[in-house]
Structure formats: C-alpha cells, structure tokens
Amino acid sequence: MAKYVAAIDQGTTSTRLILFDRDGRTRCVDQREHEQITPRPGWVEHDPKEIWRRTREVIGGALASSAVEAGDVAAIGITNQRETTVVWDRETGEPVYNAIVWQDTRTADIVAELAGKEGVDRLRGDVGLPLSTYFSGPKIKWILDHVEGARERAEEGELAFGTIDSWVLWNLTGGANGGVHATDVTNAARTMLMSLETLDWHQPSLDLIGIPKAMLPEIRSSSETYGEARGTALGGRPVAGILGDQQAAMFGQTCFDPGDAKNTYGTGSFLLVNTGEQIVHTDKLLTTVGAKLGPDGPPVYMLEGSIAVTGAAVQWLRDRIGLIEDAAEIEQLARTVDDNGGVYFVPAFSGLFAPYWREDARGAIVGLTAYANKGHLARATLEATAWQSREVVDAANEVADVPFSALKVDGGMTADELLMQFQADVLGVPVIRPVVTETTALGAAYAAGLAVDFWSGTDELRERWKEDKRWEPTMEESERERRYGEWRKAVERTFDWVE
Fold first, then answer.
1. Per-run averaged pLDDT (10 residues), the chain, 499 residues
2. How many helices (H) and strands (E) does the chain have?
3. β-strand pairing of 407-410 with 261-265
4. Given this model, what pLDDT does residue 66 score?
5. Residues linked to residue 471 through DSSP beta bridges, in sequence order
6. DSSP single-letter state for residue 338
7. Distance CA 328, CA 97 (A)
8. What angle do CA 201, 441, 434 make, to 5 degrees?
9. Strands 407-410 and 431-434
10. Is 89 helix (H, G, I), strand (E, B) or coil?
11. What is the DSSP letter of 116?
C-alpha cells in the first residue's frame, strides 16, 4: 500500500522533490538550485534543460536518501513558478530559446503596443489580468517575433508552449516520445490567454497578441491523472495534480472557503483571497483561478495581490551588494538597530505589481542620512516586505465582504520572526504560521493525493492543518499610520523613472 505522495516544487531559484506522508508531514526533501541568467538589465532567463535536469536529480536524490521505492508513492503533484514561458520543438524536445522568467520586463514595448488607446485593461474583464510584462502572453509573442522561423513553425504545430508545469509534465511523461502536453486552470489563468468564464483559450486574446492556438497545451483540472511518469526513479507512478505555486500554497493552507486568505513570502510575495465560485474584479488586484478539483468540479476563484520583489531583495543584498553572506543573517543584522532610522527601501527592480501596476517604476532607497548604517538598510529591506503586503491587504479589504481578521502565512521568510512581528504590527491583525510551512509543495501533493483517493476529501485535509506560531500586533495605530504614510511617499518616488 502506498505511503506517500511526491511533490515536484519547481521554483524561481531551485527545484525540490518533497515526499509527504498521510498526515501531511515531510518525509524527505531534495533540492537543487539553477542558474539565474540576466543578459541585460530587466531580462531574466532560465535554461529549461537545466530545470528538467535538476528535476530528475531531485527525484533520484530524494528516493535514494530515504530508501523509498516508487511503489511507496501513490501519486506525483507538480507546482511551479508561474508565467515563466518555455517554447520547444515537439519532435526533438529542444527549447527554441531560454525560458523567459515572470520577473522579466523586456516585453514593455509589446505591452504598450497591445494596450493601444483602449489601455492595459482591455482584456481584463475576460481574463482577469491587465496587460503586463508579468504574464506569459507577451513573452510568447517576443519569442515568436525574435527567434528566426519560430512563428511559422508554431502556426504549423511544430512548436509547443508551456509554463513550467507543462514543460515538466511533458518531459516527465515521455517528452518527445508521447509526453502529455497539458496545463491546469491555475497556470492557464496566468497566461492572459484563458477565459475565466469558459476555462478555455480565449480567442480574442490569442488574436490580439498573435499566439497560434496550435502551440498551446490542453487545459485540464488541477486534480486528475494526466499520465504516468517515465524514465525517472518514479517511473510508473501517476502524475495527478498541478497547481501554480501560489494557488498550491493556498491549497496547502486549506483555504477552501470564501474569505480565507494566505500570504506566501518567497522570491516575491503573494496574497490570495478565496472568492468561491464568484468572479470578483478590481483594478488593483488580479482575478484568477484558485483550483478546480476534477474534470467535473466547479472552479474556485481568487483575488491575488502579487508583489514582485520581497525575498529577492534579501538575495540582492547578499549576492549583488555583499551586505550579508547568507540570507538568514538579515534578521540578526536588522536586530542591531531599534528601527529603520528613517530609511525606506522600495525594491521596484522590475517595476511595481499590485496594487500599482507601474512598469515605469524602479527601485529606490530614500530617507538616507549620515546616521544610517547597514543595520538600518537590513531592517528597511524586511520592512519593505511587510509594507508591500499591507498595501495588497488594503486593496483586498476594499472589495471583501468581511475585512481580514487574521492572515495565514507561509514561505521561507516566515522563519524571520522580526519580519513576522512587524507584519502583524503594520496590518493590525494576528499573523499565523502553520506547523508545515512547505505549503506550496504540500498543496500540490494534496491535489495529486485527492485525485487517486489517497485522501478522502478537503475535510480530511482541514483536520491536518495545525498552527505553529501566532504574532499579535503591538504597534499603536497612530504610529502604524505615520510610518505607512512615509512608506507611501517612498513608493511615489519610484514612479516615472523609465520613460
């Protein structure tokens, strides 16, 4: 009898394989980083072949380190960095270009051209998203326009497009030898090419952006058997769950009811609010699909506040500035000062996402005086994460039936207790971290396990969620709002930098 469900967690900086037992506890983890390719300012790429190589390595590594055999695994789930775009040759499996990462801003001119006189919201009522460099559609167009012969080959059906889940699924199920070319509704919802109503490709969007339908994957639910794994240590096991990373975290946090919300702190941060079967539109947040359980299950919709840079700002301090040697050191450095010393850091490296949607913004550090030191910069970096999250919570509260009473949190940065306390302070509500913080991978495992009856249903999953720690707000409201006003002034200084 199978004892585990495997989750492939393909993220922006690394790939992991995690095995979960029936109680949702982590049995073992294997993780490998991949290269961040930045050939020009604003350009961010990954090597798709390296990502697939790392995926094979973590599958083999996890099973080898745990002595788990393929027969012990009931199913495989996939969760992935969303929007990152791969186009490959169906016959050879060779990518025609590097994967263009969700952070990449090279398509700004394409977005402006597509927006035209009707503006960036011209597709929003149908697809839930503004025209933005963030999403896959313009990235596909860039590849088709810049790789010789790509558009003609795509129109003939010789090329395949996929977000990273599709690339991993296709390779995992056989690649050029019968690999399954599919995606789930949560990832398709991030391309700017899927209708929220029909959950099918939206022809007016394809026509506007110039995407041949022949290159697109089949859109399927988030929890069903897509095919069997082949050619790895998990050969023969069903691949049965796919969720984009933020929807997977939502699922792993068991936010199954309307009004439930979570915030994930990773390379960027992402607030999601469950709106049930209702599609809710607001110009400050994205409207997206949260999950669809089984081919006949109803879709569950979400509002999302996407923040481009949070954990990536810590990586920047480490890798580009050399202020710290390890990401975990930032909390210790930030604790060497009592406050931010008047310093605010707005890490708009790729523009600003929610709630501003400003492609013209760039990063800024403001409020510097001779008094400021590296501790103040470290603290300002952590505080930037909390302030950006406050902005998207405010935007969600504007359209929510009931304001937030608490926020569930997950992701690597939740280990930073200084940040978590400051987050509770600036929100004015409790912040709650679960026992299992690997909620992204856990959500993918849950989706796969439900498809093969490893778990009986969402009620059983709710029973497995346990609180680890809770932070209560301690900051006076007047102080909170004073500092928030300073933060907003700092954000405004980043506008109109790129003309």
1. 92 94 91 92 94 96 87 95 96 97 92 93 94 94 97 96 98 96 98 97 96 97 97 93 95 90 88 90 91 95 91 92 91 95 94 88 96 96 96 87 82 92 95 89 96 94 92 96 97 92
2. 16, 21
3. parallel
4. 85
5. 431
6. S
7. 34
8. 120
9. parallel
10. strand
11. G
DSSP string, 355-415: TT-BTT---EEE---TT--HHHHHHHHHHHHHHHHHHHHHHHHHH-SS--S-EEEESGGGG
The Cα-based distances of 338 to 98, 331, 334, 372, 488 in angstroms read: 44, 12, 8, 12, 21
Amino acid identity for residue 469 in this structure: K
Amino acid identity for residue 311 in this structure: G
Neighbour count for residue 7 (Cβ, 10 Å): 32
The SS3 assignment for 196 reads coil
Matching residue, tokens 């896959």: 136
* Average model confidence (pLDDT) across the chain: 93
Tokens coding 68 = 């788990």
> Could you give the percent of the chain with pLDDT greater than 90?
81
> What are the start-end ranges of the H helices in 308-353?
311-316, 329-334
Reading the block at residue 235, the tokens are: 């050969």
**pLDDT of the residue at 402:** 65
Q: Residue 292's Cα: distance from chain center in Å? A: 17
Closest CA to 225 of 72, 60, 450, 4: 450
CA distance 95 to 88: 4
Angle of helix 439-451 relative to helix 245-252, nearest 10 degrees? Answer: 80
Tell me the C-alpha to C-alpha distance, in Å, between residue 240 and each of 50, 69, 83, 96: 24, 18, 21, 28
Distance between CA atoms of residues 267 and 106, nearest Å:
19
- In Å, how far are 49, 169, 441, 471, 482 from 256, measured between CA atoms? 35, 26, 17, 23, 35
Backbone angles phi, psi at 226, to 5 degrees: -90, -30
Name all contacts of 402-408 with Cβ < 8 Å and 24+ positions apart.
402/259, 404/261, 404/429, 405/429, 406/430, 406/431, 406/432, 407/261, 407/262, 407/263, 407/431, 407/432, 408/253, 408/255, 408/260, 408/261, 408/262, 408/263, 408/432, 408/433, 408/434
Q: Is 385 left (phi over 0), alpha (psi -120 to 50) or beta?
A: alpha
- Record the tokens describing residue 292, joined without a space: 């669809």
CA angle, residues 325, 326, 332, in degrees to nearest 5? 100
Amino acid identity, position 58: V
Residue carrying structure tokens 């990536």: 312
pLDDT of residue 399: 83
Burial of 31 (0-12, 13-18, 19+ CB in 10 A): middle
Phi and psi, residue 445, nearest 5°? -65, -45
